[in-house]
């Protein structure tokens, strides 16, 4: 594997499989039955030039659970960069202080530029419209884990990706990762103007998958295994798109009625979160809260073992961890990692 | 005990006694003679939607002293909540990342709403005009510890609560905790319009305590054991109150002259801090700095063992700690936890 | 040594030598070949009233590498100080929470005022135009280490300090530290109006060093051992200075051409960073990146062992560390602490 994790594009099928396996071995720690101190003495620089509480806390907690320490930095700019310091200087300086860097930045490509000047592993925690590879990996890990629980296989699975498929970087990265696996059937449903870019469809098709595009959810999905829904960001719409979208908005609500009438008892529902719970938001409906098919919180829970796997792999401790496990001594909530989204 | 600590209302006398006992056993750690690693592998999410450096650092340090790691978040809003995420979603997601949550929020009730959706223990670090239970517990612990030092007992003790008794949440919570104990005498002195709410006086009286209300400090307090003074927040005054208050403001200054002329040699002085040291602030006077009766810094020092006790109890490690103590190896300042407020 | 590190003025030659020796013994940890947990259980309060990501992360990482935990606070003011709390109260309260404090503050003298009220060691992380002693110590440590590598000695060495010598606090502190050592030759080159204050020149001269002031870099520096260049902050110029400076600005560029034409093969180039890499910034040129004489990143790398040495000395664990070393188990980048500034 590359010293960094900047994009899913650099990952081979073997490397993805390795990360899935390591993540799986991290479960006892993520579920707080075991602890390890394998990264004792290591320091993570968690650099968030753009706010993202959830992603920052997830990386921070994952590194701590491996025994390391974390130094968080948040804010739109570094104080030294305001004085004209180059990304090169900042990066090289930071690599003398910390042992790994997670960086989130609003500009596409900036994390790769940063990584080029550093001597320590850099993980892209999201670079604007660019990449967010740890999200795609935890999404794939969730599908893999849910399928194992349900006795299903990726071969021939039917997945529906819906919402904003044009700008949503999570669905772009996920579909690339999925395409590395055995042939499956992928249905895409998005409002007009927010379709999946054709080069991604071509890529997936060229790897033997069957891709189908539809304009509405008013279809039969009775053989569906996964719905992956994303928030439609209306602020990105042109006037024409807004008009057209308002007329058909109901078609994009994934809710209990849709699941009951058109899907089946084991169709799982995923979402990269956050979901917009405000009235009229047209996002994944809260009426599915408590339904075991709603996998969104198992999905975020899975961020911990997957991010642990990424750190463990980049820092080359994945083999050491199992020799270093100890029992947790403090109170362990029962539902972590295994609950079904019901209010506690 | 409830899985959370949201309010002092949920605490029984036995539970408060337990916390006082555990806090006392944390003293060797808080005074930096011993260390423990009992919470190794645990992560605290320290979520401050409202700034409070002192409270945040105190919880953070208490968790670290038990061996855990802390991930701080500060700022008026979560980035994801700005995108319409519900408190329910935020809470459920965070509980997959961390093992305990301290939350401070400007809106009353928001911490309880947050706790309802989570699977990990939540501690209310202050919810606006609502509750701040760890402050009340450390206040009670301070009285208990000072009384033990002075050979005094809570039975029949005379306490004076003064300042803003209407809006000051710390005095509300403290008086509730005190009311669980043996009958004592509580005198209330506040400017007109800032009196203690009558339902709290009724509660305390119904539990056998003697409560007396006065409008001025110009009285004999020679049998007084504790003065608990709070900052009067003039920004909350109506015009009428301002006029009336300005005429009598001197009566509410707790200073060396008051202590010398009206109290006794063992009357301790407490304050939830911060105190306003600006000229004309009419807050607890700095002329008491260095007087052994000034207990305000012993009081903040006590925040560490009490917050350790809260974490230890919620995470069920209070029995384990004593088996896990080791000697501190680094430099230990002599005065921590036992000094009298004198400049160092 | 004083319980605090507030200024280089308080340091004797013996104390500086001790810090250099301890820093040297920290190298295996800073270079991530060894780890120690000697500060286990200790908590650092890292209080940055003024933003400085680099300095904050460096202190944070140094404390973590010794096994301690860190609680960061950033922002222009403490929430409690906005309510009128004195620096005395804030300081005394914090000393009950943490075991050491690093404080950066925009006002000269504020860190010393803070230290006077606390019971724990305080390190000045920069107080506006005042002091930044850890920077001067890491600069001296860098010269010492580079000289050892090159087989040179401080006795009779020739150092050039250039740039803003009037306002640059780093050169003031550095020249004071250098003056404690054996006689050397120090050349000062600055634009008119930005000369080194005469009381500092007098101090250094009175200790037996040879100091020479020049107005331009257009001289022969073929026997030069060290160039220490600083950023010229044009925002501090009067109109007259701006005019005069614009005419001669080229003379103050330290770049590859200058090094090739006027210096020698072992002249090392230092800078306190950040350097302004924007076009026309007239700061240290990026065309030296990759040249082994460019020591600026080795210099920032050296911040870790020196800050570890400061913590270890103030917390009196410098003798314990060597008994407590363990091997690093995670991936160690090859170039940390030894590279030459080349892009990675």
TrEMBL record, chains A, B, C:
Q: Which domain of life is it from?
A: Bacteria
Q: Specify the Aspartate/ornithine carbamoyltransferase carbamoyl-P binding domain's residue ranges.
A: 4-144
Q: What InterPro entries has UniProt attached to this entry?
A: Asp/Orn_carbamoyltranf_P-bd (IPR006132), Asp/Orn_carbamoylTrfase (IPR006130), Asp/Orn_carbamoylTrfase_sf (IPR036901), Asp_carbamoyltransf (IPR002082), Asp_carbamoyltransf_Asp/Orn-bd (IPR006131)
- What does the UniProt keyword field contain? Pyrimidine biosynthesis, Transferase
Where do the Aspartate/ornithine carbamoyltransferase Asp/Orn-binding domain residues begin and end?
157-313
GO BP term (any one)? 'de novo' pyrimidine nucleobase biosynthetic process
Q: In Gene Ontology terms, what is one molecular function of this protein?
A: aspartate carbamoyltransferase activity
Its pathway, per UniProt, is:
Pyrimidine metabolism; UMP biosynthesis via de novo pathway; (S)-dihydroorotate from bicarbonate: step 2/3
Entries under SUPFAM superfamilies matching the protein: Aspartate/ornithine carbamoyltransferase (SSF53671)
**Signal peptide location:** none
Provide the reaction this enzyme catalyses: carbamoyl phosphate + L-aspartate = N-carbamoyl-L-aspartate + phosphate + H(+)
A cellular component term from Gene Ontology for this protein is: cytosol
PROSITE patterns xrefs: CARBAMOYLTRANSFERASE
Name the Enzyme Commission number(s) assigned to this protein: 2.1.3.2
Q: Which family does it belong to?
A: Belongs to the aspartate/ornithine carbamoyltransferase superfamily. ATCase family.
Say what the protein does.
Answer: Catalyzes the condensation of carbamoyl phosphate and aspartate to form carbamoyl aspartate and inorganic phosphate, the committed step in the de novo pyrimidine nucleotide biosynthesis pathway.
Give the PANTHER family listed for this entry.
Answer: ASPARTATE CARBAMOYLTRANSFERASE, ORNITHINE CARBAMOYLTRANSFERASE, MITOCHONDRIAL
Q: What is this protein called?
A: Aspartate carbamoyltransferase
């Amino acid at each position: 594997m590359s010293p960094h994790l900047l994009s899913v594009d650099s990952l081979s099928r073997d490397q993805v499989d390795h990360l899935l396996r390591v993540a799986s071995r991290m479960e006892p720690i993520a579920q707080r039955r075991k602890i390890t101190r394998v990264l004792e003495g290591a320091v993570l620089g968690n650099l968030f030039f753009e706010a993202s509480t959830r992603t920052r806390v997830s990386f921070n907690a994952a590194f701590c659970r491996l025994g390391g320490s974390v130094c968080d930095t948040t804010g739109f700019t570094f104080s030294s960069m305001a004085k004209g310091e180059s990304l090169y200087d900042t990066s090289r300086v930071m690599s003398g202080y910390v042992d790994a860097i997670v960086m989130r930045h609003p500009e596409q490509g900036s994390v790769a530029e940063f990584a080029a000047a550093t001597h320590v592993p850099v993980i892209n925690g999201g670079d604007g419209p660019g990449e967010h590879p740890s999200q795609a990996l935890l999404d794939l890990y969730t599908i893999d884990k849910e399928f194992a629980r349900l006795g299903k296989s990726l071969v021939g699975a039917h997945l529906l990706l819906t919402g904003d498929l044009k700008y949503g970087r999570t669905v772009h990265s996920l579909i690339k990762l999925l395409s590395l696996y055995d042939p499956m059937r992928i249905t895409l449903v998005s409002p007009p103007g927010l379709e999946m870019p054709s080069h991604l469809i071509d890529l997936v098709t060229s790897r033997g998958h069957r891709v189908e595009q539809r304009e509405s959810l008013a279809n039969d999905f009775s053989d569906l295994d996964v719905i992956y829904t994303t928030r439609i960001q209306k602020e990105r719409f042109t006037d024409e798109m807004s008009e057209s979208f308002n007329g058909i908005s109901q078609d994009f609500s994934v809710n209990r009625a849709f699941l009951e009438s058109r899907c089946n008892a084991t169709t799982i529902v995923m979402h990269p979160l956050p979901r917009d719970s405000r009235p009229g938001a047209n996002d994944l409906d809260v009426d599915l809260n408590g339904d075991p098919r709603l996998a969104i919180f198992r999905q975020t829970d899975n961020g911990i073992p997957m991010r642990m796997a990424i750190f463990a792999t980049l820092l080359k401790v994945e083999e050491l961890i199992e020799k270093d496990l100890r029992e947790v001594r403090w109170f362990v909530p029962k539902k972590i990692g295994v609950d079904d989204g019901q209010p506690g």
